[in-house]
Amino acid sequence: MSSFPGSPRLVKGAIVGIDPFNPLASIITFQYNPDTMTRQIEAQTTRSDDGDRGEALRLKGAPVETISLDVEIDATDQLEQANPLAVSSGIYPQLSALEMLVYPKSSLVIANTILLAVGTIEIIPPAAPFTLFIWGPQRVLPVRISTFSITEEAYDVNLNPTRARVQLGLRVLSYNDLPITHPGYALFLAHQVAKETMATLNTVGNASASGSLSFSGGVSTGM
After folding, report:
1. Mean pLDDT, residues 59-73
2. Are 33 and 10 within 8 A, CB to CB?
3. Three-state DSSP class for 87?
4. In this predicted structure, which of 12-16, 18-22, 183-187 has the lowest mean pLDDT?
5. pLDDT at 92 exceeding the cut of 90
């Protein structure tokens, strides 16, 4: 980010884990925003390859979207400033915060072990934290971490990692995946409404630039 006083403030991406059993939310703000992000979108249609022709354009819900990105974490600046946490632990706390998004709480594991020991027949698996992927004000998405790879690249004298690259694979959770009472349901629906607004702005802008378009029984242009 430029140090010029008039330069805009760079918005940082983040991953936030919200756990009702832990009042301190897991917040991982990206130290450096990734240069690239890959989004794969798969339409959810009702028609199979040998289905009814009349069903070809029907959609049964929001598409399945997956996101892939690489996140860099580096303690060099903090170590130069003698940050106590970086000096004692490197980037281990940041990596641990990311990893805990795919771990069940140890307290729940212990509780379920006790229940099994006393003969409880059915144990409900613990839920992961409600995880949000935040990429600017237009994209605040409920997600599930599906793949996770950490490459540790440097260490301090105590073998705490001080630099690492994290490859993340995220599965966006839509209203197809969540009950209507879950906060992620409304959050994804609001995301879709915002996307529809952006698409409308694009259509209006293109129509203004290229002339009028009509799709009533045919195609005509006012160019």
Report:
1. 93
2. yes
3. helix
4. 18-22
5. yes
